[in-house]
Amino acid sequence: MSGYNAKLGEADVELSAIRAQGSGGQNVNKVSSAIHLRFDINESTLPDEVKVRLLRTKDSRITTDGVFVLKAQQYRTQEQNRADAILRLNEWITESTKVQKKRRPTKVSRAVKARRQQAKKANSDKKLRRQKPDF
User: Fold this and answer.
1) pLDDT tens-digit readout, 24-49
2) Residue 89: phi, psi to the nearest 5?
3) Cβ–Cβ < 8 Å for 8, 45
4) Is 130 a residue whose pLDDT tops 90?
5) Which of 51, 72, 95, 108 would bridge with 85, disulfide CB 3.0–4.6 Å?
6) Hey, what long-range contacts does 15-19 have (CB within 8 A, 24 or more apart)?
């Protein structure tokens, strides 16, 4: 399983327009172009195992009530920010539900150990040659 492809309904996501941060010229105090997305994980139509996996992720955007909060303000228009917010939510769900491949522990090979010992011996010999001769 590579990750759950979310197909969210309109009722799953709550979008509201807010004013974007930062400089914006004459429109900065008049136009609400940023989008504030709220996604209640517990109340969504996602399967239960996906909900549990999402709630278990260590993400600062998830509140204690299990609501994922996202702010999209990259673009100048509300429509672009709305599309960006939904796209980022879908990407987050897909990434959070990916199953990691189990790690198989490996051993250091005998040849690698032998090469390491040879290198240590060569270094030791080099340092011995630097010493004053002992007559």
Assistant:
1) 666 666 667 778 788 887 777 787 88
2) -65, -45
3) yes
4) yes
5) 72
6) 15/82, 15/85, 17/78, 18/71
> For the chain, what are the domain ranges?
13-96
Q: Is CATH 3.40.50.300 the right assignment for the domain spanning 13-96?
A: no
Residue 82, amino acid: R
Taking 90 as the threshold, does the pLDDT of residue 120 lie above it? yes
Half-sphere exposure of 98 (CA within 13 A, CB side): 10
Answer whether 73's CB lies under 8 Å from 21's CB: yes
**Of 62, 81, 57, 80, whose CA–CA distance to 71 is shortest?**
81
Is-contact 97 53, C-beta < 8 A? Answer: yes
**What pLDDT is recorded for position 1?**
47
| CA angle, 91 then 43 then 65, to 5° | 85
